[in-house]
Every structure is written in C-alpha cells, then in structure tokens.
Amino acid sequence: MAVNPAVYGASTRPPRGDYGRAADDYTCTQDYAAYTAQDHALYHRLYERQSAQLPGLASQHFIDALPLLGAKERIPRLEEVSERLYRATRWQLVAVPGLIPEAPFFTLLANRKFPVTDWIRTPAEFDYIVEPDIFHDLFGHVPLLFNPVFADYVQRYGQGGLKAHQLGACEMLARLYWYTIEFGLIREHGALRAYGAGILSSAGELAYAVRSPEPQRLPLQIERTMRTRYKIDSYQQTYFVTESFEQLFALTAPDFTPLYACLRKLPEFAADAH
Ligand code: PHE
Ligand code: FE
Asked: What is the pLDDT of residues 183-226, one digit of tens each?
C-alpha cells in the first residue's frame, strides 16, 4: 500500500518496523534465514485460501501471472521473483521494512522498483492486518507487474507522485492509487473482476467487491477518484471500474497539474457518497 504511513498503526515485533536496518532509499535486505517454519506455513495458508477463490473473481491477467511468484509452500526469495520480473517487464523487487515515506516510495516506482515489505503477519492476523506485510505486497501487487501495460502504469504513477509531491497534491494522487492499484475493478468479457491488490489479498473483500449488492461501482473517472475519500478499516463502499489496463493508462496520461488546481476548489465526496 505504502500511501500514507501516518494512517497505519505502530509496528510491533522485530524486524517489523525496524527502519534502522534500511538504507537511505529505505530498502533493506530480505533476511531469508530469519523466517521461521511458522512464517512459511502462514504464507502457505494465506496463499491457499486466496488462490482458491480467484476463479470468477480475479482478473485473468492476475490469475495467469500468479504462478510466476514461485512455490506457494514457502515465502519466496525476493531476488528470485525479481529476476523473473525483470526479464518480463524490466521491473525489480526491493525489500523494505514496512511503509515508507511518499518521496522515496515514488522514486522507487519511477525507477521500476517495487518495494515489498519483508516481514509476515502473525497467525493472529490471518484474517485481517492493518498494514501491508509480505503477503499483501507480493501476492497482491507483484503478479500484475508482469503485465506490460499495468507495469508501465505503476511507473507513471511513481513519476506523477514525484510531481504531486512538489505540487502538494499527494492526497489527491493517493486516492487514485487507492481506487486503482489497491481497490480497482476491471471488466473482462463483460464480467466484473478485481485487479486491486487490497482486494486480491483480502479473504473477505474479494467476493464482496465483485459480487455484493452493497457497494456502489462507478465507471473509472479520474476526477471522481481524486475527490473521493476512502476507508482504511472497512470494506470499500465505492469501487471504480476500468474497461482495460489500456483505458486506465490512457485516462491517466494527461498532465495532472491543471487538474489538481481545479479539483482543489471542489468539494470532496464521502467514501459512500452517491
Ligand atoms: N499523468 C500524471 C501527471 O501528470 C502522472 C500519472 C500517470 C499519475 C499515471 C498516475 C498514474 O501527474
Ligand atoms: Fe498495497
């Protein structure tokens, strides 16, 4: 996720949240030997539960790329996945100790480096975790980085983030991230599917986002996403649907500078506003 460190709770057990082991760009080394058998077993359980419910709910792009993460029985070595990813789309994975500040986050994305939190949740957090861990970052985000169009979109987002940072427009841009990269829906052969990592890594929200009559689903519209607040502690009440990654890319291609200036003067929408 990594959009706004301030909104997530403080970290608990080491190496969770130990930023002392990170370099200036906030990356660190994945201490693979530090994972316990319980950590690997938890990854396996999370993977099994999530992959079982993908058919009919997840984007086919995601389903097709998932095996590229490697064996599901243990936490992947980031370097191995990174090499595979680099060959496919010239993206790389870097380990980070957790959420990182906006500017270094955008810089990594602009350089086609995706930060992956290296620690895994505790078994007590099997159903729900408030901050991204390796399961969310890897299982949720990495498969679509194998898709060339989506991969380019995320890089553009990073470049746009650096600009938004200068313009004081990060909050608006973060909402676009939230409603696309984290909670985006896509229409594939006429049917709704999820491509957002926050949905795809959530046990309960996947079926809810795609099938429940409760939330509203709007056609993706950049202005509207940027004006719409979001909830971080409940299922979303509004989702935005794109027709394709090409459409997502095209809609976000224009320079956002004039858009930010204009949107600043307009009221926001509540997360559940109709
Ligand atoms: N076009 C955006 C800008 O000018 C950059 C961007 C691209 C942002 C894709 C998000 C996603 O700021
Ligand atoms: Fe995320």
From this structure: 999 999 999 999 999 999 999 999 999 999 999 999 999 999 99
- Mean pLDDT across the chain, nearest whole number? 93
Which residue's CA lies nearest to atom 10 of ligand 1?
A: 157
pLDDT in tens, 116-158: 999 999 999 999 898 999 999 999 999 999 999 999 999 999 9
Quick one: which ligand is closest to 260's CA? 1
Could you identify the atom of ligand 1 that is nearest to the CA of residue 254? Answer: 1
Residue of 59, 61, 102, 182 with catalytic role: 182
Binding-site residues from annotation for Fe cation: 136, 141, 182
Residue 161 alpha carbon, nearest atom of ligand 1 = 8
Decide whether any atom of ligand 1 lies within 6 Å of the 163 Cβ: yes
Average pLDDT over residues 89-100: 96
Domains parsed from the chain with CATH numbers: 5-263 (1.10.800.10)
The whole-angstrom separation of Cα 141 and Cα 247 is: 19
141 is catalytic: yes
Q: 12-50: per-residue pLDDT in tens?
A: 444 687 888 899 999 999 999 999 999 999 999 999 999
